[in-house]
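Review form for a predicted model. The reviewer records the input and the model, then writes brief findings.
Reviewer: anonymous (R2)
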Amino acid sequence: MAKTDIEIAQEAQLLPIFEVAKKAGLTEEMLEPYGYTKAKVDIHSLSDKPQKGKLVLVSAINPTPAGEGKTTTSVGLADAMNKLGYNTLLCLREPSLGPVFGVKGGAAGGGYAQVVPMEDINLHFTGDFHAIGAANNLCAAMLDNHIKQGNVLGIDPRRVVWKRCVDMNDRQLRNIVDGLGGIADGMPRQDGFDITVASEVMACFCLAVDLLDLKARLARMVIAYTYDRKPVTVADINAQGAMTALLKDAFKPNLVQTLENNPAFVHGGPFANIAHGCNSVEATTTARKLADYVVTEAGFGADLGAEKFLDIKCRAAGIAPSAVVLVATVRALKYNGGVAKTDLTQENLTALEAGMPNLLRHVQNIREVYGLPVVVAINAFPTDTAAELALVEQKCNELGVNVALSEVWAKGSQGGLDLAAEVVRLCDEPSQLQYAYNTHDGIEQKLTDIATKIYHADGVDFTPAASKQLKQLEEQGFGELPICVAKTQYSFSDDQTKLGAPTNFRITVRNLRVSAGAGFIVALTGDIMTMPGLPKVPSAEKIDVTKDGKIVGLF
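Model under review:
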C-alpha cells in the first residue's frame, strides 16, 4: 500500500534548521529559531546585498477541484535544480486553514516533493496568519471604538467597509448583524467576515518591501466613508503603528526545508481567486539575494495567479521571471474536455484533445501577452497512459513549446531532472516582461484588457452598482491602480461551468472596491465570495491526533 503524504513527511530525516540555513548562505546569527526545524530570517542583516537570482514562476492550467500539483512541482523542481548543482531556493505561500480543513487539503507539496515539517506548515506554523488576523481585527475594533467615542471624523456607520477576518472557511460569517444590545455594545449594523487570506492586511503584508513600507501601506487602507462620502483611512484613526507592531515578527520570512533538505522560504499566503495569490515580496527578494535561481509559484491557473503575479507583484516589486513553468495534468485536461470527476482515471483521448485548448491558451498568453519563455510540465499520475502523454507533447510541440514529464511526486528530485534542465536553458534566453495593461488607463479599460487578452472574453459588463463604484473610485483618485480580479479558478470565464477554452462570453463585474494599501482595485465577478464555505464532507473529518500527539489524516 502506497504511503500517504503525511507518512512520507513524518518518516523524513530533517536537518537542524541551522544546517539548512548554511546551504542558503545564512549564519546562525541571522536566524530566530522556532524549534528544531523552523526559523525566521533577520532580513535587516541582508539589506545591503544585491538581488542576483533568476526568478522562475510556476503556474498552471485551470484546475480540477483537487488542484493539479503546482506546489509539488515547485518543490520537486527546486530539488532537481539543486541536484544538478544549481544554487536554488524555493519560495512558497503559507497554507490557509480554510482549504486544509475544507476540500483541497494542505499545500506543502506531496509525495516525495514536500516542504517539511508539513504538519506545522499546514497548521499554525510560526503564527503569521494569527498576527495578520489580529492586526486586521485591531483595526476593526479601533474603527468601531472611534464611532462609539464621539465619531469626530463623521463616519457613516452604514458605509463601514472594513470587515473582521478569520482563517477558516465559515459561510455563517459572510453576512451578520453585530453591535446588538445596549448603547454600550456599539451601533447595530449589517456586517460580515472575510477569510484572513483575502484580507487587505494580507495583501499589504505580501507586497511590502520593508517594515516602513508595510506601515505606510496599512495607513493608506480605506476602512469607511464619512456622511459626505469621503474615504476614511487607517491613518485617520491612527491604527497603523499598533498594527505594524503586531506584524513586525511575522514580516520576517520563514525558513524550512524540503524532504531533500534544501532550503525553502514559506511566507505569506493570499488566495489567487479572491486576492493576488503570491508569496511575500520580502521572501522573494531575500531569496534572490541568496541564490542563483529562485523557484516560486502563483495560485490556481495562469489566468489568475500568473496574471496577478506579473501585473501586480512584479510591477510593484520591480522584478520579472526569467522563465515560466506551466503545470498541467492529463486528468485536468480531460476534466476541461468534459469528463466527470469520477471518470478521470480512464483513458480518453477524445476528451483529452477537447481539453487541450485550455493548456494551449495559457501557453499563448504567457508567450504572446507577457513575452516570457515557457515550458509545460506534465505532473504525472499513475493512471496516465503513454498515448495520452504523447498527445499532450504533440500539441505543445506544434506551438514550439517543450514538454517535460514531471515525476517528482513519486521520485523526488530524480523525477524532475529533465524539467530542471529545460528551466535552466529557458532562463538563459533573452526575454522582456510585458504587462497585460497600462496602469495609466482607466479602470474600465484595464478590466477590458485583462478580459480580452487573458480570458479571451468579448468584453466586460458592469452592474449598475459597479458602474457607480467605478465612477466614484476614479473621482477619488484611484483610477490608475492595477486591477485584482476575483474570479472562479475553474474557468477562463466568470462561470465555473464553462470549461476548456470558452469563447463568445463576457465578464460581469458586480462590485468594485479599492485596496489602497495593497495598491490595487478589487473587481468581484460572477458569484465569487471573500469568505468560502466548507464542503459537504470536509477534510477536517479525517484529521485526528494519536495518544502520543502524532497528527494523522492530514494531506
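Findings: The chain has a mean pLDDT of 94.
Further findings: The chain is about 35% helix and 20% strand.
Recommendation: see findings above.
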